[in-house]
Amino acid sequence: MSETTLPINEKYAQLASDEQIERTAKALEANGIRVFVVANREEAKAKLLELLPAKAEVFLSSSTTLNELGVAEEIDGSGAYDSVRAKLAKMDNATQGREMIKMGAVPEYMVGSVHAVTEGGSLIIASNTGSQLAGYAASAAHVIYVVGTHKIVPTLEEGFKRVEEYSLPLEDIRALKAYGMHSNVSKLLIVHREVMPDRTMMILVKEKLGF
After folding, report:
1. CATH number for 113
2. How many domains does the chain have?
3. What is the SS3 assignment for 195?
4. Could you report the average pLDDT of every consecutive run of 10 residues in the chain (211 residues)?
């Protein structure tokens, strides 16, 4: 089983205009999220590594965006950072499962992506298990999102449609290939504002990354 029956709305694959990006960046900044706009994935990767302090504890979320960005080796394999994933790989889920969950929820830096960002400065993150949502919402000390500008939408309503009509079908295909099972939008996190100063940053990339 490797094909989804869910239709993919390619409307949500279109990159945002410069005007939309500027509006979105200003709204995010007003909502307490620091924004960096870059031209492509190479610049995004360089900016991400620049933002992460040497030897910082970093947890890379499971993310197609991050896979396409290609930062796992630098963060998890180089020794330049205190990688949560590298530590988790050495632990036994059967006997240390609860400890592993806690480690993934409360890192110093959490790196991930979102499924939609509105021109009014709100974020939507969809999840099947919800495992990454606690860190994004509050428990990680710092959060850095890497987001392709095809994820910019005018409103929250359009953001929800994007999740259901674009992100979910593509994730369903990935899950079927990887696990032989369908995916679901079981849980949603909506972020309207970051109340902790200097906690959340976003790198907006003028290139398609992830879905």
Report:
1. 3.40.50.10420
2. 1
3. coil
4. 78 98 98 98 98 97 95 94 95 93 95 98 96 96 98 98 97 92 95 97 98 96
